[in-house]
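Exercise 7. Predict the structure of YeeE/YedE family protein from Silvimonas terrae.
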Amino acid sequence: MAIVFAALSGLIFGLGLILSGMANPAKVTGFLDLTGVWDPSLALVMAGAIAVALPLFRLARRRQNAVSGDALQWPQSRQIDAPLVIGALIFGAGWGLAGICPGPALVLLGAGLPQGLLFVASMLAGMGLFGLVRRRITRT
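Solution. The predicted structure, encoded as C-alpha cells:
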C-alpha cells in the first residue's frame, strides 16, 4: 500500500510543479533575478505550498503512523552544522544557475527534455562524488 501512496504523491507533486511553472527553468530564473525583470509569481506558489503543508505537518506530528499505516520517520537531528550549510549553499547555487532543482529535474527527465537528462546526470554524479569524498574523510 505504501508504494501506491508514494506513486500518488509523486504524481500530484509532479503535476503541481508543471501547473505552477516550477518545472520551467526560465520561470525559476526569472523569480531569482531580482535585478532584472523579476517574476514574483513563484513566491505565491511557495506561500500557497506553505499554507497547505504547515497545518498538515503539525497534524502529522501528533500521529504515530502515516495514513498508509507505516511508521512516520522524522529527522533525528536539529543541529545546523557545516555540512548542512555547505550543502544548502551548493543546492542554492545550482538552483540559481540552472533554474532547476531535483523535483522539477525529474519532471523534465520524464518529459524527455535534454536539460532534465543533463541535470539528473549531473546530480547523480555529484551525489556519487559526495559519497566518495565522505568515505575518504571518515577513513582518515
